[in-house]
Description:
By secondary structure, the protein is of the alpha+beta class. The chain folds into three domains: 4-51, no CATH class; 63-277, Orthogonal Bundle (Helix Hairpins), CATH 1.10.287; 299-567, YerB-like fold, CATH 3.50.90. 43% of the residues lie in helices and 20% in strands.
Amino acid sequence: MPELPGPLTCGRGGAPTVTMATSTLGAVSLSCRPSIRMALLFAMLLLVAAAAPVVAGPYDAEIAQVRTDIGEKLDLISSLQDRISGQQDRISDFEDDLVALDLQIIDNDSAISTEDIELRVLPVRLELLADQFIRVLASRSEPAMLHQTMAIDAYLRNDERMNAVLTQSAQLAADSLDGVRDRMLYDSVIDESRRRLDLIDAGLRLSADAIRGLRALVVEAEGRRQEAIDTLSGTRDSKPPIRVAIGEARTAIGDAQTAIGDARTAITGYEAEILRLEQLAVTLTWTGMQGTDIGRPALAVKIDNVTRAHPQSGLNAADVVYEEIVEGGVTRLVAVFQSTSAAVVGPVRSARTSDPPLLTGFDHPLLAYSGANRGTKNELAASTMVDVGQDAVADEYWRNKSRRPPHNLYTSTDGLWAHHPGRTAVPPAPFVYRYPGQAMHPAASPATGVSIDFGLTEVGYDWNGTGWARTHGSKPHVDDKGSRVAPANVVVQFVSYGWSKADRRSPEAHTTGSGEAWVFTDGQVIVGEWNRPDAALPATFSVDGEEIRLSPGNTWVALARKGTATWR
């Protein structure tokens, strides 16, 4: 047992003070204002609930699947956000590349401008060198003319040596030039002219080298300029694909953002679905209707069903109504209440030995009845049923003087439950129910109604779109408020009847064992079987081992002999 707050006392202003002690709930004292007492009691109930074993809800699987879907969407959003981040990084890299390309374009433009300037200057320099070369070449004629003049002068002066030189020089070719010069009279002058010629030739060679160098510089400058132009063109050609890639990355970001929006919208829908399922999951065990179970025992009330007992009270409030055969082929009703109450129920009639085996599967149910013979009372006393009949709690019964006895005895469900306030467990329900949207059993076939012949009593049920409208004999079956009896479900449970040991005139339904069953629900019929090997548990209804689920709402069960019913 967990440690719970011990006795409570109120401090200043009504605030509770708690002394911790190992205790049970029964030992906890609440001595504060009513509102505080209720709050504390609620908190302790939550604590106890938290310590209780977890019971699987009807929509746990569906909710778990939706939560899985939400997780997948969240994973998708995370992946998309990573993708967006990656695309943003790509865009940043691409923009850096564009900046680098722009800088490279500027550098290339500058290089082209530099080479353009160089190419404008080099031709001028080349032209100047050419002029210089021409001038040097022209200056070479002066020493040559000097040599010629000296030879002419010697000839005119009849200088034999010079004449011989002149004569010889006229016949000499280039290969004998040095020999002529060696024999010249004016070696010094010739030598000077020769030296000057050598200098001039050297200058010519230098000029020629300079010209060739300038031409090489022009070629190099032109090459560099073309390389810069080619690079500039390639750089400019590189920008459009990058811009396209940036556009594609931005499109990818837009698509991812759209997908994130769709995923978040889906998550919102999933969350709404979880809320819906959680709300739907709050259903009543005994009827499958939405609501919160009330912890109290099942209460069975024996109701007269002869024609003089009509109209009855409380039938439409019952969770389940069993119809069983009694003496003479008439039927008696067993109205079982758990999820709802009825202020007036009746007319109440006597019990039969069919009742204990029929009802004991509902965990010590209360039985309200007007009386019974000794044998029936002995069987009731030996059963697990709790006697809340007229003899046991007479104050909870009254007679309606406007009706003739014995068809005028009535009771109240709340009055009978008040005698057993400690019963807070919800007993096992006789049926299971479909959840909203859950498919019908695959064995279901369309049906419009069913007729049952109990002997002296003939009843029928016709599907009206929302329920199975009941007829008793040839008349519509209505309650004391004029409302048609039209349960959400009708179960024809084929059983055998024997004779009661308490009264050989009274038939006794055998409701343990197994047999055929027709389940009418939502305009369909499902032909299956009922099975109840142990009287301590309710019967189950199934087809090939798969349990039949009913529509949420109340159910009437006809305990009929085989061969006495037909459906259409």
